[in-house]
Amino acid sequence: MKKILSGIFIISIILTLLTACFPTNNDNSKGSTITFYLTDSPKTDIQKAELNVKEIKYTSDSTEIILLSNQKEDFLKLDGVLEKIKDIEVINESALKNAKIEITLDSTIDIGSKKISVDSTNITLNLDTSEFNLNRNYNIIIDLDLGISLSGDTKFNPYFRTWMVADTSADYLTLYGYVYDDKITKVPKSHYMVLITDTNYSTILYTTLTNNDGMYKFNRIKLDLTKNYEISVAYPEMDFNDVNIVNFESYIITDSSTNLDVTKEQIDLYIGYQ
After folding, report:
1. Model pLDDT for residues 122-135, shown as the tens digit of each residue
2. How many whole angstroms separate alpha carbon 143 and alpha carbon 158?
3. What's this model's pTM, rounded to 2 decimal places?
């Protein structure tokens, strides 16, 4: 009996030592995938917005990653569209501490009719990662607002914004519709700007323009479907040139604004007689 107990004791010690040397991996955490996208808030009176992007870089206290390098982009073609530029894997939240997007541009932009100088070729954007949770995937949107950036056809001061959106399969949204004068006559309104904003009208997330038939479309954009948004039409004379605006509500045609119902693929908007 003593020999049996002694044998069991020895086996237990051996198993303990083996466990210490070769620990079982009970950590099921997989980290997070962050996908970066480019998009554009459009401007109506130019033929294109072709710009050589020398570099887009993601940096934090512990990380520096080149997202894009020496690529020519016609940002006007990104109206209502997300262009994927890179995936990165995050296994530690420290990779997001003091996160920034650094953008380096060429010195000229081609707007179709002419090339004009770029006032600022180096842009740094602070990225809000306060809602980040490890093991959930996210998207980071980098948006060039041409309406704010371009003053006439003589001055281009690039205005970018960026934000993070939690990613699930439901967060992809394709949305289209028509802008009409009213529900009775349904006269389509071409070349009007359609905006998706937060409910306070303090942040413009996506914009696009209606075509000659009054139709707009957002193609596979990313939204956090746990939040509420407004979809609206802007007054045609509004150019959103003032970067200090904290509330865009006065720029919105009130009758057109409605809560964005993410269960609907088509949302028609009515502006009244403008």
Report:
1. 999 999 998 888 88
2. 10
3. 0.69
